[in-house]
Amino acid sequence: MPGPRLSSTSLWPEARALITRVVEAASRDQFVDDCLDALVELFGADRGVVLLADGAGASVAINARGQGRALSAYEREEISRTIVDDARRQGGARLWEPPGHGPPASAAALGIYAALVAPLRVPARSAGAGPRDVGVIYLDFRDPRQVPGPVHVEFLAAAADLISVVLDGAERAARAHEDLRT
Predict the structure, then answer these.
(1) Which pLDDT score, from 0 to 100, does residue 56 have?
(2) C-alpha dist (Å) from residue 9 to 12, 15, 19, 115, 146
(3) How many CB atoms lie within 10 A of CB 83?
(4) Is residue 10 packed enough to be buried (19+ CB in 10 Å), middle (13-18) or exposed (0-12)?
(5) Out of 42-46, 148-152, 178-182, which region has the weakest mean confidence (pLDDT)?
(6) Could you tell me the pTM of the whole model?
(7) Are 169 and 23 in contact (CB under 8 A)?
């Protein structure tokens, strides 16, 4: 029963529906919440979280959703920081499944069976530099029957790119607004 609605035949209609959310979004937060709701539902995930890196390198949850609802402050923290940190170091979208010896202690303690993570990248602020990693999108699965596959990894990578564009636009607009005030 993995990935109940995403298949090779539904991939493009689902991608188009996600892109339509960009056009209809009233705000950055509403857009990110809508995307997380769509991904959690589509993949059969238990929770979806967008985490941004702060100045000290820690990850801070800016949006978090689970099965059609916002997650509480406590639930936002019920994610595997080990998986998030590994994803930030390794780059690229990936599926994390417990290796033969079992999941990291943080994942096992939370009942996480698998997780999908993808970096959020925005254009460099200076010419000639590559894209900046600003955070990750994280989905976890606590039911072993809902383990995603390669098509889910690819779809999440595309969704991460889309979310990155919106985050970058919001950041640039905020900077421009601040510059106008000073």
Answers:
(1) 77
(2) 7, 11, 17, 23, 19
(3) 23
(4) middle
(5) 178-182
(6) 0.77
(7) no
